[in-house]
Amino acid sequence: MHIAILTFDGFNELDSLVALGILNRVKVPGWRVSIASPTPTVRSMNGVVLQAQATLAEACAADAVVVGSGLRTRAVVADAGLMAQLRLDPARQLLAAQCSGTLVLARLGLLQGLPACTDLTTRPWVQEAGIAVLEQPFVARGNVATAGGCLASQYLACWLIARLESETAAREAMHYVAPVGEKEAYVERAMRHIAPALAEAA
After folding, report:
1. What's the mean pLDDT in 54-79?
2. How many beta carbons lie within 10 A of that of residue 91, not counting itself?
3. HEC secondary structure over the chain
């Protein structure tokens, strides 16, 4: 089971790394979570440099893909060569987009007919692409999920774990990372957000 987190130059650390940390709480044989980038290294919006763990080609073959966000997402979607490499398909993959990552899915034509969530800055660009943007942190329809706001990445991770492993595993992962004294509240809030999508998928 391979989950790839698409991460480009100018990436938002919270969007890529919170999801990475939560997804890696699942400890089952064959479970792999990787940072996938178009270059060997990528630099974040705050200067953090990450080494890619997977190529874009590997991400396109992954079981699930998280499209991260960052300061340069509009440059990403304007790069025809780069976008042509993103051969994503919700018929064979779970796709999750965080904040401006939603713009990537929109420009790839993968959100047609679907409502979406994104951050406030990216919202008008997603709307210009013809996508209805919801005033909420998370939504999923079928195999496509989107989230808005950096800390909403926890909902994408929770949804992916529930879909790929189990709801029990999702609860356990959230419980592990939630603040002490607030663990049950965090778990229940996350599960409330993803429950409608899980029911639909079932």
Report:
1. 97
2. 6
3. CEEEEECCCCECHHHHHHHHHHHCCCCCCCCEEEEECCCCEEEECCCCEEECCECHHHHHCCCEEEECCECCHHHHHHCHHHHHCCCCCCCCCEEEEECCHHHHHHHCCCCCCCCECCCCCCHHHHHHCCCCECCCCEEEECCEEEECCHHHHHHHHHHHHHHHCCHHHHHHHHHHHCCCCCHHHHHHHHHHHHHHHHHHHC
- Summarize pLDDT for 86-96 with one digit per residue, the tens: 999 999 999 99
**Polymer length in residues for the chain:** 202
Q: What average pLDDT does range 32-47 have in this prediction?
A: 97
* CA-to-CA separations, 195 to 15, 65, 70, 71, 159, in angstroms, rounded: 22, 20, 28, 31, 9
So what's the pLDDT on residue 3? 98
Residue 63, Cβ density class (10 Å: 0-12 exposed, 13-18 middle, ≥19 buried): middle
